[in-house]
């Protein structure tokens, strides 16, 4: 359980069971962000406990991210005693179930104390069903004193509810025939390939059919769906409407797996698809399927559908393999450093099995272009775009994956939205390597302002923001690196450490694309 307690939650925490652990976050956005990272990396529904209305209020941005990330969270919050809800005594969550809407799949306050176990079971089961996501249960604090039939409570909790739906076999057969018969098909690999356990299946599909593979646009790509070092891999699709169709020009069949169509941003009008191209999407999220502006969709478990598709395809494709990917662009040395150079240094020292959690807006593309992450579960990003995910999720990911090195790449502005997660990283001995790119500005917003011809906007500069010193205040060992060698050395030291360490690097202002 990830939580931040208040008086209304203490009865729930009384006699805390020894087979549960409790991870304290010092602010609720951090609590939910850590739980989001843990839930995604472990694949397990994760319990969150918040402090009545203000706790839920502080957590809303992170719950928004968790929904976009398809992260299964059972979010609970304490409530006034039942006798004092109607008169709205202090700390009453007046409209508890309405508050987290529309960010949760289900929001409930049981009408009788005896129903709390059934409500928690309902929430836990529902959070883990496709589309996975957060649910909310509000629990009046005196409910914990109620007598509950133990057998009845156990029966509700111990049930198994499974929801991996198979696709209609006729649709899969038709898709296999269309794919095999297409002149120049392409695969767009989305985050739910990784979440569904379909990583190897996506590779098998691309290799069997000789498909070039694009990653879905980074804006909505909270995970990777395909190894970036694979010869068929092309890169990440740009997120604008016109840019997506421009990039996919020449393809007659676009197969999108485990992604929405598409997480567009900003608005760059244009054709939705190249002339004459057809699109088919495979997604486990019915809403993702219906809100797409174009193309057909098959709603089913992503991994099961890939498996069924492979079974229908011939052993070899008639088309030749795509040109092998040439690898990352060369970056010339720079003084002062820019983000691209820092990412080349990171790429050199990053262990094979490392996990990267990314929240460095102006260098997202540069990092994706320089690193070649090649294992499942190696990358986490906020599909919701709400800052504060990166720093906190990295702690949760490390708790779920104690044996893999976790590197969290942050802009110094982004770090501020979850700054207290440094404390949790130290308190729970999570050896995350934090790499902070300090450009003294909100670089991405300046870039947006320029592209949208917005001039004179205030609040885009961050002078004198000393993240290393703040992290030290929370007990994190901090290194300050000024050139490429220092960056490499400091990263290696941090990666070898059994405690969280931070490397702060001043970088040039502006966007880094490669
Ligand atoms: C909760 C939240 N508030 C505000 C924003 C808007 N926003 C997007 S990027 C950004 C700047 C982040 O700054 P920094 O981490 O320093 O990255 P840089 O753009 O300099 O790479 C802001 C404020 C957001 N995405 N989420």
Compile the SSE list and pairings.
Layout: E1 2-3, H1 10-13, E2 23-24, H2 28-42, E3 46-50, H3 52-68, E4 73-79, E5 107-108, H4 116-127, E6 135-140, H5 150-158, H6 169-181, E7 185-189, H7 191-195, H8 199-209, E8 213-215, E9 233-236, H9 241-247, E10 253-257, E11 278-283, H10 286-291, E12 296-299, H11 302-312, H12 339-349, E13 355-359, H13 364-370, E14 379-380, H14 389-400, E15 406-411, H15 412-415, H16 421-427, E16 433-438, H17 443-451, H18 467-473, E17 477-480, H19 484-496, E18 501-506
Parallel strand pairs: 1-2, 1-3, 3-4, 4-6, 5-6, 7-8, 7-10, 8-9, 10-11, 11-12, 13-14, 13-15, 15-16, 16-18, 17-18
Helix pairs in contact: 2-3, 2-14, 4-5, 6-11, 8-11, 12-19
The structure holds thiamine diphosphate.
Thiamine diphosphate is lined by residues 61, 360-363, 385-388, 411-414, 417, 439, 441-445.
How far from one another are the termini?
Answer: 39 Å
User: Which molecules are bound in this entry?
Assistant: thiamine diphosphate
What's the total number of strands? Answer: 18
- The overall pLDDT average reads 97
Strand order of the largest sheet: 2-1-3-4-6-5
What share of the residues does DSSP label as strand, in percent?
A: 15-25%
Question: Tell me, what's the shape?
Answer: globular
Uncertain segments are none
Q: How large is the count of helical segments?
A: 19
Structural class: alpha/beta
What is the C-alpha radius of gyration, as a whole number of Å?
24 Å
Largest sheet: 6 strands, parallel
Helix content: 25-40%
């Amino acid at each position: 359980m990830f939580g931040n307690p208040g008086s209304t939650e203490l009865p729930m925490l009384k006699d805390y069971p020894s087979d549960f652990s409790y991870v304290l976050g010092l602010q609720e956005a951090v609590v939910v962000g850590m739980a989001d990272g843990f839930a995604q990396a472990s694949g397990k529904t994760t319990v969150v406990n918040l402090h009545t209305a203000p706790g839920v209020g502080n957590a809303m941005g992170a719950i928004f991210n968790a929904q976009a990330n398809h992260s299964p969270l059972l979010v609970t919050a304490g409530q006034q005693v039942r006798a004092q809800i109607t008169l709205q005594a202090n700390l009453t969550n007046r409209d508890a179930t309405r508050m987290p809407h529309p960010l949760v799949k289900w929001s409930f306050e049981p009408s009788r104390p005896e129903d709390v176990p059934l409500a928690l079971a309902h929430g836990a089961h529902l959070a883990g069903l496709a589309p996975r996501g957060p649910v909310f249960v509000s629990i009046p604090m005196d409910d914990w004193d109620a007598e509950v039939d133990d057998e009845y409570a156990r029966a509700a909790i111990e049930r198994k509810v499974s929801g991996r739906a198979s696709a209609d076999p006729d649709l899969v057969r038709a898709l296999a025939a269309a794919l095999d018969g297409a002149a120049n098909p392409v695969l767009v690999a989305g985050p739910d390939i990784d979440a569904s356990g379909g990583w190897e299946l996506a590779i098998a599909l691309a290799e069997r059919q000789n498909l070039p593979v694009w990653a879905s646009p980074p804006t909505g790509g909270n995970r990777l769906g395909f190894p970036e070092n694979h010869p068929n891999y092309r890169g990440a699709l740009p997120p604008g409407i016109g840019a997506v169709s421009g990039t996919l020009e020449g393809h007659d069949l676009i197969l999108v797996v485990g992604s929405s169509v598409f997480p567009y941003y900003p608005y760059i009008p244009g054709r939705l698809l190249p002339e004459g191209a057809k699109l088919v999407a495979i997604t486990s999220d019915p809403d993702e399927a219906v809100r797409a502006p174009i193309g057909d969709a098959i709603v089913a478990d992503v991994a099961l559908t890939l498996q069924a598709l492979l079974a229908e395809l011939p052993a070899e494709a008639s088309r030749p393999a795509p040109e092998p990917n040439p690898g990352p662009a060369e970056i010339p040395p720079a003084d002062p450093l820019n983000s691209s150079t820092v990412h080349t240094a990171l790429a050199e020292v990053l262990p094979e099995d490392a996990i990267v959690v990314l929240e460095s807006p102006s260098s997202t593309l540069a990092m994706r272009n320089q690193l070649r992450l090649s294992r499942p579960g190696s990358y986490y990003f906020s599909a919701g775009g709400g800052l504060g995910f990166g720093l906190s999720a990295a702690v949760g990911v490390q708790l779920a994956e104690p044996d893999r090195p976790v590197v969290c790449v942050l802009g110094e502005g982004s770090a501020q939205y979850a700054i207290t997660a440094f404390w949790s990283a130290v308190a729970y001995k999570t050896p995350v390597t934090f790499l902070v790119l300090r450009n003294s500005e909100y670089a991405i917003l300046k870039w947006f302002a320029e592209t949208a011809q917005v001039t004179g906007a205030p609040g885009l500069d961050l002078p004198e923001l000393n993240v290393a010193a703040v992290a030290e205040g929370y007990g994190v060992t901090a290194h300050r690196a000024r050139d490429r060698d220092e960056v490499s050395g400091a990263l290696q030291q941090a990666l070898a450490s059994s405690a969280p360490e931070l490397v702060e690097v001043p970088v040039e202002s502006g966007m880094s694309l490669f």
